[in-house]
Predict the structure of ABC transporter permease.
Amino acid sequence: MNAVHAEWIKFRTTRATWIGLAAIAATVAGTGALALYVASMYDGADATRRATIAVAPLEEMALFVAQLVFAVLGALSLTAEYRSGLVRTTFTAVPRRWAVLAAKAAVLTAAGLLTGVAAMAAARGLTGAIIGDRPIPEYDEPVRLADLLVGGPSVAMFALIGLGLGALTRSAVATIGTVFALWYIVPIVAMNLPAPWDDRISSIVLTRLHTELAGVDPAVKYGDHMPSALLSPWAAAAVMTGYVLLVNLPGYLRARRD
């Protein structure tokens, strides 16, 4: 618990943490601005045009930014210590490498869970209040609680992937570049693979797992151009856990040998 407390002090007193949280808050505000635009466009359209107006769930913008922010924070929680030399103090105070990584993981997981749910809920509440009772798809029915709660595990997963890659590479640039490729490039490549591999690979990319964890079929939620989900909520949770273990175990083994 002393190690967890020390890591919590580092996390909450680091400038990067507050910059990242400010970016998430700004994105939530941005979803409100987009909702205002959609509402004004709907109000100014005729009946025929209104029937064609649709908008993707704007709260997912806040989720995507939170995922990237916490991946960066996860990476910096260790790479910044290697860069500054503080890691010598950390490992002198807590020689057991697994205890250090576990303490960092505990803090990142707790912060990611809370931030992911809060960002999703705040963005959905703001955009829903602005759009109001306008019959716009995705906003013309009550929001499912599961759709908001899965933001927490998703953000925590990205934070732990950032931590594991940071422990493995000890480079913030390499870690952030790898996470961005997994977040943006891999899903695009997967969607353009020949059938049935497009569905199979797309079902396990990082940015799809939160919808499957909530039991939502992306093809139904976003349109027929999206691959259909193949994973159940339990399978999605298992894949998320597998990603975390896959990157953190090699990172721990390298830290243990230095």
Observations:
- Residues 2-257 form one domain.
- The longest helix spans residues 97-131.
- The chain has a mean pLDDT of 89.
